[in-house]
Amino acid sequence: MNHGGDLSAKRVFDALLASAGLLVSAPLWAVFAIVIKLEDGGPVFFAQPRCGHRGRVFQTFKFRTMSRDAENALGPTYAVPGDTRVTWTGRLLRATALDELPQLVNIFLGQMSFVGPRPERPEFVEEFKNELPSYEQRLQIPPGLTGLAQIYGHYNSSPRAKLRYDLLYLKRRSFPLDVKLILLSFWISLRGRWQLRGKKL
After folding, report:
1. In this predicted model, what pLDDT tens digit does every residue of 143-168 receive, in sequence order?
2. Is residue 188 a contact partner of residue 201, using CB atoms and an 8 Å limit?
3. 20 within domain boundaries
4. pLDDT at 11 over 50
5. On the CB side of 75, how many CA atoms lie within 13 Å of its CA?
6. How far is residue 159's CA from residue 143's CA, in Å, rounded to a whole number?
7. Bridge pairing between strands 45-51 and 57-63
8. What is 9-69 written as a DSSP string?
9. Which structural domain range is residue 170 located in?
10. Could you point out which of 44, 67, 141, 181 has its C-alpha 20 to 30 Å from the C-alpha of 134?
11. Does residue 196 form part of some domain?
12. Is the dihedral of CA 194, 67, 124, 82 positive or negative?
C-alpha cells in the first residue's frame, strides 16, 4: 500500500474540507465568542501544545470550555464527569464537540487531519510511551479531529483501550473509512452525544 500517496491525497481532502468548514462556520465563531466572553469575561480561545505527526509539537486551538486558570491548582488533568471547572457554555460546546471548531485551522495548516488518533499533550505522550509499548505507532500519521476511538470508545475509556482503536485505524485506514467516520461524527454532534459515558451511536 502506498501510504505516502494516501497521506498526500488525504492532505488535499483535509485542506478543501477545512476551508469549506471555516467559511460555513464563521457565524458560529462570532456567536460563541460573544457568549463565552459574556459568561466570565475570560479569553475566548484556549491554546495547548499537542504531539502531532512523528512527535512534532504544535499548538491546538479550541473554544475555551473551562474556567480561567482551571489547571493552576491541579496541573494537567483530564476532565471528569461533573467537573466543576467546565463552564455552563462549555458543557454545551463539549456535548456537541463545537468547542473543537477552531481545530479546523490546525487541519487547514496541515498539523492535523479530520480523521486519525487524537493528539495528546506531550507530558501524557511520554507517560503512555513508557506504559504502552505500541503507543508510539500512533504518531506515524497526523492526528485527527475524530477517529475510531472517539466514535466507538467511551468518553472515559482507558489509554490502552483507545490505543487499540488507533492501531486498528492505522491498519485499515482508507478514504471510504474516513468519510464514514466524518459522517458519523456529524451525526453524534447533531444529537449532542459526545460526552456520554456509554455508546454514542
Report:
1. 999 999 999 988 778 899 999 999 99
2. yes
3. yes
4. yes
5. 3
6. 15
7. antiparallel
8. HHHHHHHHHHHHHHHHHHHHHHHHHHHHHHHHS--SEEEEEEE-GGG-EEEEEEE--B-TT
9. 3-191
10. 181
11. no
12. negative
- The verdict on residue 198 lying in a domain is no
Please give the span between the terminal C-alpha atoms of the chain, in angstroms, as a whole number.
31
Mean pLDDT of 93-105: 95
Neighbours of 83 (CB within 10 A): 15
Mean pLDDT of the chain: 90
The 3-class SS string of 118-180 reads CCCCHHHHHHHHHHCCCHHHHHHCCCEEECHHHHHCCCCCCHHHHHHHHHHHHHHCCHHHHHH
Residue 197 lies in a domain: no
Closest CA to 118 of 98, 138, 90, 93: 138
pTM: 0.89
Which residues, in sequence order, are CB contacts of 62 under 8 Å at separation 6+? 45, 46, 47, 48, 99, 100, 102, 103
Among candidate residues 157, 145, 165, 161, the one with its CA nearest the CA of residue 197: 157
